[in-house]
């Protein structure tokens, strides 16, 4: 295949696509809005599943590099009552079915696997328009354009490529998370560190939950979930860390102090992250010369599958293009026909997000029952 592939977005999905194309000798360029690979934090831990994310890494011929990133023991899981009682404590079984890695380190492995000039940093897309016959023109905010015969939107929730295919836009799902970090946890935050344990911990209740995991370097990374409208969060001054932390902690009044410490003892200001999703089963009619991968195609509420699906999308699209070097439309059709049902029916971790944070079953005992059903069904 000689057609040059233009990829918008240097997240995990776009980079996996670029890598699989490179393995097959297909030229590609990735345009990324961020000015450099280190422009911002790349998030926390990811469990990379043997039924999707790891399959993508195999197609990318990066399994050895991936294994070098795995943080041993982080598959351990604990489920707690709000009073701190541990109801479920599962050790890392060592099977490697869902090993944990740092997102930023995985992204760097993908970047390092590409020719040096593959990613063009500091290219924020300001507009995309169809030129006909499967060709598209991409305009960048800093000036300049590129015309391509094969355009892939890997540019996340607020994709600038998606409007070429769909009029759907993400909508707020009714709850948000407040993100916190505690550093040097075993020495500076021992009670919280003990509560979290060696892997991940969740304390769920209807409308309120705290999830945390242990990252590299004795760091605890927590996501405090609250089911409230956007206006409720807008009334909180997140520019004042102390005020914001106190207000969020107030919603967990009566919870064990080792759990609320994940809010009140945070070592950085709390970060509000509203959660959005595209309609479940989002799809579009085939449009020549363009497609989407990852959140641009199927943004969903957090379910443990987003990064894995994005990587698999990239790998499967790369495989399809390699299999149909003289027929781009056949490749895109094959990819989309498999991707649509895969994203709609993706296996969901049977946690609080599986049956909704507002559900009466969003309790420690309800989560344990759901988790047990999930494991038995595998």
Average of the residue pLDDT scores: 93
Helix content: 25-40%
Distance between the termini: 38 Å
Please list the strands of the largest sheet in the order they lie side by side. 5-4-13-14-15-12-16
Which secondary-structure class do the elements indicate? alpha/beta
Percent strand equals 15-25%
What is the molecular shape? Answer: globular
Q: What's the story with the biggest beta sheet?
A: 7 strands, mixed
Number of helices: 14
What's the Cα radius of gyration? 21 Å
User: Which residues form runs of ≥5 with pLDDT under 50?
Assistant: 347-355
Q: How many beta strands in the DSSP annotation?
A: 17
Walk me through what this model shows.
The protein is globular, with a radius of gyration of 21 Å. Mean pLDDT is 93; it is low at 347-355. With 378 residues, the chain is of the alpha/beta class. It contains 14 helices and 17 strands. Helix content is 33%, strand content 24%. The strands form four sheets. It has a seven-stranded mixed β-sheet, with helices on both faces. A five-stranded parallel β-sheet has the order 7-2-1-11-17. Helix 1 links the parallel strand 1 and strand 2 (28-31). Helix 2 runs parallel beside helix 11 and helix 6 packs across helix 9 (257-264).
């Amino acid at each position: 295949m000689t057609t040059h592939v233009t990829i918008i977005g240097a997240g995990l999905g776009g980079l996996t696509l670029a890598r699989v194309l490179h393995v097959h000798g297909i030229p590609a360029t990735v345009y990324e809005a961020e000015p450099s690979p280190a422009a911002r934090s790349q998030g926390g831990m990811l469990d990379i599943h043997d039924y999707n994310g790891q399959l993508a890494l195999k197609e990318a011929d990066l399994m050895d590099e991936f294994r070098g990133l795995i943080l041993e023991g982080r598959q351990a899981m604990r489920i707690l009552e709000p009073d701190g009682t541990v109801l479920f404590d599962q050790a890392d079984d060592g099977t490697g079915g869902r090993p944990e890695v740092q997102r930023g380190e995985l992204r760097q492995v993908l970047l390092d696997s590409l020719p040096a000039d593959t990613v063009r940093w500091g290219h924020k897309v300001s507009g995309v328009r169809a030129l006909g016959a499967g060709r598209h023109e991409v305009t960048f905010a800093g000036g300049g354009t590129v015309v391509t015969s094969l355009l892939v939107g890997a540019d996340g929730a607020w994709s600038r490529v998606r409007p070429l295919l769909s009029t759907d836009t993400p909508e707020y799902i009714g709850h948000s998370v407040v993100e916190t970090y505690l550093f040097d946890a075993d020495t500076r935050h021992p009670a919280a560190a003990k509560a979290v344990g060696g892997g991940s911990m969740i304390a769920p209740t209807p409308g309120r939950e705290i999830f945390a995991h242990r990252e590299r370097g004795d760091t605890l990374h927590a996501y405090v979930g609250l089911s409230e409208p956007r206006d409720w969060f807008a009334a909180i001054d997140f520019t004042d860390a102390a005020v914001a932390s106190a207000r969020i902690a107030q919603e967990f009044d009566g919870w064990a102090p080792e759990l609320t410490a994940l809010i009140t003892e945070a070592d950085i200001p709390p970060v509000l992250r509203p959660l959005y999703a595209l309609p479940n089963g989002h799809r579009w009619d085939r449009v020549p010369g363009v497609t989407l991968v990852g959140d641009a195609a199927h943004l969903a509420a957090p379910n443990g599958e987003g990064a894995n699906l994005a990587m698999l999308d990239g790998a499967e699209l790369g495989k399809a293009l390699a299999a149909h070097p003289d027929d781009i439309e056949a490749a895109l059709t094959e990819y989309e026909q498999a991707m649509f049902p895969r994203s709609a029916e993706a296996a969901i971790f049977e946690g609080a997000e599986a049956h909704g944070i507002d559900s009466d079953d969003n309790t420690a005992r309800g989560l344990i029952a759901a988790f047990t059903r999930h494991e038995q069904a595998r």
